[in-house]
Amino acid sequence: MTRLQALDPKEATGRSKELFEGIQSKLGMVPNMMKTMGNSSVVLESYLNLSDTLGKGSLGGKLGELLALSVAESNACNYCLSAHSFIGEKLVGIDTATLQAARGGENGDAKIEAALQFAKTLIAKNGRVSAEDVAAVKDAGYTDGAIGEIVAHVALNIFTNYFNNTANTDIDFPVVEAATV
Question: Where are the alpha helices (DSSP H) in 5-95?
Answer without folding.
Answer: 14-27, 32-37, 41-55, 60-74, 78-86
